[in-house]
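Hey, I was hoping to borrow your eyes for a little while. No rush at all, and the record is pasted right below:
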Amino acid sequence: MSEDTTTKEDLGEPSVINAATAPVLVVLFTNSAPASACITLGDKTATIGRSDKCTLVLDESMLSREHARVSFENGSIRVLDAGSRNGTFLNGERIDGAATVKDSAVLRVGRTLVLLDVHGARFARGGVIADGGRVSGPEMRLLQARIEHVAQLGETMLVQGESGTGKEHAARSFHAASAYARGPFVAINCASLDRNIADRELFGSKRGAFSGATDTPGHFVAARGGTLFLDEIGEMDPAVQAKLLRAIETKTIQPLGSSSAREVDVLLCAGSNVQLARAVQEQRFRGDLYMRLARNEISLPPLRRRIEEIPFLLHEGVQQALGRDMQPLPMTTGVVERALLYSWAGQNVRAVFNQMKKALMRAHETASPEIMLEHFEVPQPDAPRSVATQQPLAGRAPPVRGATPPRDQAAVAERVIATYQATGSAPRAAEAAGVSRQHVYRVLRKHGIDVQRAAGGGDDDE
């Protein structure tokens, strides 16, 4: 976490939550960098701002000395804007006065993004750890421990999860933690196997078994002494499923055209993006094979259930996308906020990397100093991730709620704000965004930015 972000509990490293069910405030992104710092919301109100007296101290010019207050009341998290000059935002919308979060929401204050979560159980294991290109949140670390336990037992494992959640990564971790780690790791996508030759591909064949047949070892033999990962096993032909079950139970295979079985010492891991229990009910998958595989079953959560990993994954996506003579670029808060609010359903981690690769290329093509919303193809969500009920303070008019602004308007507004905050010049902001100076002032007023002071520092209110 950035050195410019501190708390009374020193959150330079991911903190451990004492009460597993306590609601939490987790800093996700600050000072243009991913973060993972947790504060448990107890009986006292947590304050956010530039003042050293705040619970969460952020050295940001966009923040007031005391910008916002967060508390846990009656089973919900209550957020109060403490009269800040530049506003407090929940799930991308500016709040007027106070709002109540019943489940989880993304809080934005200045250029910092914070996760508010009523159910903080997973953070009892700490925050997100990024090491050597590997991003591991608290929920995934718990699963990693289970994977290693099964691997050390030397038993078959089934990994289920949506596409892109990291099933092959889990399988490789399974292999690395097992007694078979010195052997090969062979990954096969069963959906790509032609049903007419799947038997031969997996178990091999002998010369003369059929017209044109040659001695083919097959994937089981190729993985001998190591791990065979059968991804999308739900797509496997039923006839092949029967032979697979026998291979698991007897640790032998019988190649096509052979009159005898062959012993194979292979650690098996299967993956599926469909619920195999349902496939069994629909008679699309053998029940006996499922029962054999499901003795050790791991379910990978989708990215929308572990959004604390997203800022780190975005950063890792940039690092992976770097090509020759290409420099890494920082991300704007708007990009990270958009990614946090997007569901990533059916896409998950793989899609994050793909989007960041495209965004980095577009930013370089336009000579932009940072990755902005206009480079990021992820659309605004149709609805907030969770409900935050507005509670306007006395004497204030409730906010006007209209249609979600088009993506290009959001990108223009972000460029206007970023350029103005960096230069303090409305003409430069207008030129950078390709809009009139009057439009610049409208954008700044709409986002509650003090035109006189946005570039020079925050306000000095107590």
